[in-house]
């Protein structure tokens, strides 16, 4: 999984000049994006242009007083009136009680593909729209402190068995030990899948054992 860089802010519904939407482009996330103090709509949105069209596998968001958040994706090539697709449906970042007491305002939410709506998964996007709201507190400042995007984790191929460096007898013995280790790892993982589909960590253990067996 690789970071997906945000190039610039396309548009925003509101911002405090001291805490503009461009703060979301910062990689250190020190200063947040907050709505204008004179805006009483209690809802904010910002649209971001990505450096290139990429599949999105992970989204990390730093909250700053928002009660609800929705994430949508689209493409810069689309007509202006074409609706974006929902990536993450509206989620709760703060409870009504926390909102009214102005506590637990700066949590972090991390979303993965399992949290995304199916229509938006696996496609390439170069626009992201964030819509956040705070209906439970009429005077508190709210917005977001950061957003991080990453591509999906690449599926690693099954390790290819190395060519045996021993004779036929030694190679056969190595193959038996390897099969025993594979079955043991499979059982330790709960036997959720067949032995041919081990987890990444189990495949690394198996590969290390192969390399050790082939050393002279």
TrEMBL record:
Residues 152-174 are annotated as: Disordered. InterPro entries: Galactose-bd-like_sf (IPR008979), Xrcc1_N (IPR002706). GO terms for biological process: base-excision repair; single strand break repair. Transmembrane segments: none annotated. GO terms for cellular component: nucleus. It comes from the Eukaryota. Pfam families: XRCC1_N (PF01834). One of its GO terms (molecular function) is damaged DNA binding. SUPFAM superfamilies: Galactose-binding domain-like. Gene3D superfamilies: Galactose-binding domain-like. Residues 1-149 form the DNA-repair protein Xrcc1 N-terminal domain. This is XRCC1 protein. It comes from Atrichornis clamosus.
């Amino acid at each position: 999984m690789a970071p997906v860089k945000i190039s610039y802010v396309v548009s925003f519904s509101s911002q405090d000049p001291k805490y503009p939407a461009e703060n979301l482009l910062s990689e250190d996330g020190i200063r947040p994006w907050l709505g204008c103090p004179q805006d009483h709509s209690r809802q904010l949105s910002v649209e971001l242009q990505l450096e290139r069209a990429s599949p999105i596998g992970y989204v990390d968001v730093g909250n700053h007083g928002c009660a609800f958040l929705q994430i949508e994706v689209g493409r810069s090539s689309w007509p202006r009136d074409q609706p974006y697709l929902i990536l993450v449906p509206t989620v709760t970042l703060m409870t009504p009680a926390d909102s009214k007491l102005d506590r637990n305002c700066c949590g972090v939410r991390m979303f993965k593909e399992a949290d995304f709506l199916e229509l938006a998964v696996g496609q390439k996007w170069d626009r992201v729209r964030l819509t956040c709201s705070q209906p439970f507190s009429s005077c508190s400042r709210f917005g977001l402190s950061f957003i991080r995007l990453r591509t999906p984790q690449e599926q690693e191929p099954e390790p290819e068995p190395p060519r045996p460096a021993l004779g036929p007898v030694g190679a056969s013995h190595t193959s038996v030990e390897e099969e025993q280790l594979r079955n043991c790892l499979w059982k330790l993982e709960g036997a959720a899948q067949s032995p041919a589909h081990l987890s990444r960590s189990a495949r690394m253990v198996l590969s290390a054992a192969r390399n050790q067996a082939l050393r002279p």
